[in-house]
Design a protein that fits this description.
Layout: H1 3-33, H2 37-46, H3 50-64, H4 71-83, H5 87-105, H6 111-123, H7 127-140, H8 147-159, H9 163-173, H10 180-193, H11 197-210, H12 221-234, H13 238-246, H14 249-252, H15 262-275, H16 278-287, H17 291-294, H18 315-322, E1 330-332, E2 346-347, E3 355-361, E4 364-371, E5 374-386, E6 390-396, E7 402-404, E8 407-412, E9 415-420, H19 431-435, E10 437-438, E11 441-442, E12 445-446, H20 479-483, H21 487-493, H22 516-524, H23 532-537, H24 548-551, H25 556-559, H26 581-591, H27 624-628, E13 631-634, E14 639-642
Antiparallel strand pairs: 1-5, 2-3, 3-4, 4-5, 5-6, 6-7, 6-8, 7-10, 8-9, 11-12, 13-14
Helix pairs in contact: 2-3, 2-4, 3-4, 4-5, 4-6, 5-6, 6-7, 7-8, 8-9, 8-10, 9-10, 10-11, 10-12, 11-12, 12-13, 12-15, 13-15, 15-16
């Protein structure tokens, strides 16, 4: 071989060798720098390609084995499974292999995992447990907010009536970039639930400013503008309400071909009413059709005026109502000073070594519980009930919690005294319990206030901005508790606001003019103790005699009355209840009498079909109540209450 040829061969060989080394180095570099399965899966997960991410991770887990899999691989795979609605498989990883791997590697769970694990738990039917996962995660890492977790936690909290928790979550969501509008829309809805018009207005004005079309929200923009307008009207901002309603297309366009937004038109009629533009108010009211008739107990979107404003025009009802117990079921401030107090410490109903004193300290009433050599003091904030029957005081402890005092005052025909507070017997396991049972609070409002005052938010803690309205001066339950805010009514009563049929619209709830079912529902809001579902499941339980708003509906008198029997058949809500048995028996006989037998009693309680016997075979003229609506002893209240479950009672149930 010639020298030239040898040199050429050597050159080619050297080139090949160099290329081989270079290729080898490239392969080594690629193996060192190419993204691994975790990186590729994470990139796919970030793109929302959860199927691809799961495929990559499955292969990796299969190659290395379940027990040897990297915790990051397991965590990411569990996330993909939840995103793909494979909740049971995801939870088996979260609660099994991943929990052990995280413990061994001392890894902290991330907010994404808390959200997805909670979501999987919720979707498998354990709603409370899922919400608790989110609650703990949000409490432990308040600075690391997770938008989806806050969003879902807010909505689920509302569903479960955890309103305070929902408010906190919604506020945090509204501060996250990209979620500000959605958070504010949710905050507006929740503020409506807690009767906070300024809160609704502030949240929805900002939400609609950021996202006028309400994209990504649970409802459309028209819904939020109607809700905003309703609360602007409650604050007396009629011009601003009109402007919001005009942005709804079905309201802006008055062409004959367009379908009117009946609710928006009705709200517009109220805006014009507040602005004094009566012809326009009448036209808008006509365009609203039957909206008002279909919502008979809907409160007017108006400012409160207080019961004092009702008296000049409704003097007879006002004077009669002032004498009822409805106006004597709530005491606070200096009104507490005149209530009965024990002249010596009262022995605790569960622990004879504990005593409770209730004393005046300056312009306040204090409770002093002597427990184990210590005296635990609380300041009384409210009292509910009446001194003529039963009275319970609510105090604040050192941690600012509301508590019902362990002992309550009772007054009967046989005397008066202090005994165990109803519902609190047997709750003395701890020092905390011995101070009194804690009372639920929702957005700063004590639960009991809802049924004892005109508007409970007037007495929230901290107080509403600017203090309570004129209704806060009412004696306990005022006119507007049942009739709704009266601001629009005051204007309508002195103006000519006509509906589409030409009759005057007085812009106020008239309970007497509603069907019996509707009227009963309003009374039952407060005259029910316990969950209606539980009461229906055990209707014979004597404890539910405190819930006439529900138990009356079990009666044949009610079910066969064709909608005629209501609470107001026997009770005038403007007057103190009549205590004469003869008065109520006359109501029974008016329906169940020989002259009514076989006929429809349209004006009274029963309209039995022809041929059905309606006259009592035992005593057709009197003593109806002792058999069919007897008094049931309630030892905890030191009282007897009438059983409104009207029925033919079995002898052992008497």
């Amino acid at each position: 071989m010639s020298p030239q040829r040898r040199r050429a061969v050597w050159g080619i060989g050297a080139t090949v060798a160099v290329l081989g080394v270079a290729l080898g180095l490239a392969l080594v570099v690629q193996s060192l720098w190419a993204p691994g399965p975790a990186v590729r899966a994470r990139e796919a997960y970030a793109r929302g390609d959860w199927d691809r991410a799961a495929e990559i991770l499955r292969a990796e887990i299969r190659d290395v084995g379940n027990r040897s899999a990297d915790p990051e691989i397991l965590r990411l795979y569990a996330r993909c499974l939840v995103r793909l609605d494979r909740d049971a498989s995801a939870l088996s990883i979260y609660d099994g292999r991943l929990r052990q791997a995280e413990a061994e590697a001392a890894l902290e769970p991330e907010p994404e995992d808390a959200f997805l694990k909670g979501l999987a738990i919720v979707r498998t039917g354990r709603i409370e447990a899922g919400l608790e996962v989110w609650r703990r995660a949000l409490a432990e890492k308040p600075g690391a907010d997770h938008a989806e977790m806050l969003d879902n936690s807010t909505r689920l909290s509302v569903r479960l009536q955890r309103i305070d928790q929902a408010l906190v979550s919604a506020r945090r969501l509204s501060n996250l970039p990209g979620w500000e509008a959605r958070g504010r829309f949710l905050l507006g809805e929740i503020s409506e639930l807690v009767d906070d018009p300024p809160g609704v207005v502030a949240a929805l004005e900002e939400g609609l400013k950021r996202e006028p079309e309400a994209r990504g929200a649970l409802f459309d923009a028209a819904h939020f503008r109607r809700l905003l307008a309703r609360n602007l009207l409650r604050l007396g901002r009629a011009a601003d309400a009109e402007a919001q309603l005009r942005m709804i297309p079905a309201v802006s366009s008055f062409s004959l071909s367009s379908t009117p937004d009946r609710e928006a038109e009705w709200l517009l009629s109220r805006a014009y009413l507040q602005l004094g533009r009566m012809p326009e108010a009448g036209k808008a009211l006509a365009r609203s059709g039957d909206y008002a008739a279909e919502h008979r107990l809907m409160p007017e979107p108006a400012p409160f005026v207080g019961s004092a404003a009702c008296a000049p025009c409704h003097r007879d009802q006002s004077d009669a109502y002032d004498a009822t117990r409805h106006t004597r079921t709530f005491y606070h401030g200096k009104g507490l000073l005149d209530l009965p107090r024990p002249d010596r410490p009262v022995i605790d109903p569960d622990d004879p070594k504990v005593t409770h004193a209730i004393e005046r300290k300056g312009d306040a009433i204090e409770s002093a519980s002597r427990i184990g050599g210590q005296v635990r003091r609380m300041v009384v904030e409210y009292a509910f009930g009446t001194p003529q029957h039963y009275l319970t005081m609510i105090a604040r402890d050192d941690e600012r919690n509301y508590r019902a005092l362990r002992v309550s005052y009772y007054h009967t025909s046989g005397g008066s005294g202090w005994g165990a507070t109803a519902g609190d017997v047997g709750h003395s396991d701890t020092v905390e319990d011995l101070r009194g049972q804690r009372i639920d609070v929702r957005d700063g409002v004590v639960r009991c206030l809802y049924c004892h005052v005109t508007r409970s938010r007037d007495f929230r803690d901290p107080p509403p901005e600017g203090g309570g309205g004129p209704e806060a001066a009412d004696r306990a339950i005022g006119c507007e508790r049942c009739h709704g805010p009266g601001g629009n009514h005051v204007r309508a009563a002195t103006s000519d606001l006509r509906d589409r049929k030409g009759s005057t619209d007085f812009a106020i709830i008239n309970v007497a003019g509603t069907p019996a079912l509707t009227a009963n529902g309003q009374c039952a809001e407060c005259h029910t103790v316990g969950l209606p579902s539980q009461i229906k499941g055990d209707p014979e339980n004597p404890a539910y005699v405190r819930s006439p708003g529900v138990t009356m509906t079990f009666s044949r008198c009610y079910t066969e009355s064709n909608g005629a029997l209501s609470c107001m058949t026997c009770h005038d809500p403007h007057r103190e209840a009549n205590h004469s048995a003869a008065f109520y028996e006359a109501k029974c006989v008016a329906c169940h009498s020989a002259s009514k037998e076989g006929a429809n009693a349209k004006t009274a309680a029963s309209s039995a079909p022809a041929g059905r016997r309606t006259v009592c075979p035992v005593n057709p003229a009197r003593d109806c109540l002792n058999c069919h609506m007897p008094k049931v002893p309630m030892p905890t209240l030191h009282a007897q209450l009438t059983d409104h479950y009207i029925r033919v009672r079995k002898p052992e149930k008497r």
